[in-house]
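Hi support team,

I've been running sequence recovery on a batch of backbones for a student project. Most finish fine, but this one hangs at about 90% for roughly twenty minutes before it completes. I'm not sure whether the input is malformed or the queue is just slow. I've pasted the structure tokens below so you can try to reproduce it. Let me know if you need the job ID as well.

Thanks,
M.K.
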């Protein structure tokens, strides 16, 4: 029995020794792997450090290059300015950084918008509430016995009450039925006023009886002056029609491409705006309601006849050019100033060329032709009338004048 069990006791120690040997090999392998990785990481760190130093050198070089090219762009603009050419905004030149709104600015805008809305909303609500009140007040004043008696005493008569989108009103006429005054009750605020050739007078009273008495007192005091001013203003309006049809005035306006527009009436004046070809108001003639005097170009005249000659003189001296025309005129002056320079004239002379100093118009361009000794057009300086751009027309090709400067700048060392 004993010989059979001894082999089993001998095998068990061999299995334990084998496992222990494998563990030791594993630890040795891990140690070697860790050492190799550590060496590689150190080596990689050296590489990263060298790349970082290289990149920093590139960044420094690029910074120097950007500084040089920025300086070069500034020099180009100085040259352009010296040659009376407009400067350019190069992409590499520093630009102002746009800053957003501050919290305070945002709050201010919000507050303004909010109160603007509230004002409109409350105004509309007030108009709705006061509309019926205003109509009733106008009718009550019109029908008040004391008021109608005062109207009759002043040899006046009343028109019927009428209501539009703004007011409920009625006219006060003379014996011939011509309107002298108009009594208005504003629909939004039920406020009473009276309008005439003298302008607008606000009535202080708010009830029908008191307002009627105040109106009668105003009519008593201002009737004659209102009739006189109405006659005077109507005469001035007729005289203005004559001024607009005056042959000399029409010629000056046509030459200037200007127009006298229809009258604009306000509480204080009758205004005749004078527009350029772009419908921009350049001048204005005003007939003042307070005394019938006429204002034009910061001076006062008693009649249109007195105004006529100074008006024509001012028209002749006034620039009615539109923004586009001003741009074209500026471009013309810019080119023509260069054309007169001795250096430019010398260049023409050396090439046996002549410049036609009066430009010709061709579609959308003004052209200054440069001709050879045989009177043949060599090329033309052009101003594009829609944009003011300066061009060169040569060999049936259209080239931007400033592109030559850009090409020339590229050739510089």
């Amino acid at each position: 029995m004993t010989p059979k069990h001894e082999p089993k006791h001998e095998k068990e120690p061999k299995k334990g020794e084998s496992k222990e040997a494998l563990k030791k090999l594993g630890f040795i392998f891990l140690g070697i792997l860790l050492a190799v990785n550590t060496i590689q990481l150190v080596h990689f760190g050296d590489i990263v450090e060298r790349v970082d130093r290289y990149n920093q050198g590139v960044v420094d070089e690029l910074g120097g290059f950007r500084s040089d090219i920025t300086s070069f762009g500034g020099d180009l603009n100085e040259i352009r300015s010296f040659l009376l050419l407009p400067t350019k905004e190069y992409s590499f030149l520093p630009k102002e950084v746009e800053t957003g709104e501050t919290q305070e600015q945002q709050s201010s805008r919000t507050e303004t918008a909010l109160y603007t809305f509230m004002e409109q909303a409350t105004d509309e609500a007030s108009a709705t509430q006061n509309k019926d009140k205003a109509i009733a007040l106008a009718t009550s004043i019109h029908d008040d016995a004391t008021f109608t008696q005062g109207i009759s005493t002043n040899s006046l008569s009343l028109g019927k009450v009428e209501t539009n989108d703004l007011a409920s009103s009625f006219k006060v006429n003379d014996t011939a039925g011509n309107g002298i005054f108009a009594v208005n009750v504003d629909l939004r605020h039920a406020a009473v006023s009276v309008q005439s050739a003298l302008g607008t007078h606000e009535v202080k009273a708010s009830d029908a009886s008191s307002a009627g008495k105040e109106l009668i007192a105003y009519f008593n005091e201002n009737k004659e002056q209102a009739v006189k001013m109405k006659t005077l203003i109507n005469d001035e309006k007729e005289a203005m029609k004559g001024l607009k049809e005056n042959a000399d005035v029409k010629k000056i306006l046509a030459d200037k491409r200007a127009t006298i527009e229809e009258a604009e009436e306000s509480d204080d004046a009758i205004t005749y705006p004078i527009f350029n070809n772009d419908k921009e108001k350049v001048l204005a003639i005003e007939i003042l309601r307070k005394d019938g005097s006429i204002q034009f170009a910061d001076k006062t005249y008693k009649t249109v006849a007195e105004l006529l000659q100074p008006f024509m003189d001012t028209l002749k001296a006034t620039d009615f050019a539109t923004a586009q025309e001003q741009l074209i005129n500026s471009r013309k002056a810019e080119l023509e100033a260069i054309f007169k320079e001795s250096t430019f004239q010398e260049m023409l002379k050396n090439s046996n060329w002549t410049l036609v100093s009066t430009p010709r118009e061709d579609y959308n361009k003004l052209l200054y032709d440069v001709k050879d000794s045989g009177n043949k057009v060599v090329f033309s300086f052009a101003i594009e009338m829609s944009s003011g751009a300066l061009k060169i027309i040569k060999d049936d090709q259209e080239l931007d004048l400033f592109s030559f400067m850009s090409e020339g700048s590229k050739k510089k060392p």
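--
Follow-up from support: It reproduced on our side and the slowdown came from queue contention, not your input. The longest strand covers residues 179-186. No action needed from you.
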